[in-house]
Amino acid sequence: MDLRTTVSLLLLLLGLCNAHHGNDQDGANNEMLEDKSNVEDITATILRMNNRSSDFLLEGDVFIPKTRTAMKCLNKAYSCLWPKSANGKVEIPFLISQKYDDTERSMILHAMKDFESKTCIHFIPRATQRGYLSIEPRFGCSSLLGRTGDKQVVSLQRFGCIQQGIIQHELLHALGFYHEHTRSDRDQHIRINWENVNEYFIYNFKKMDTDNLNTPYDYSSIMHYGRTAFGKFRSETIIPIPDPSAPIGQRDSLSDIDIVRINRLYKCWRYVG
Question: What pTM did the predictor assign?
Answer without folding.
Answer: 0.76
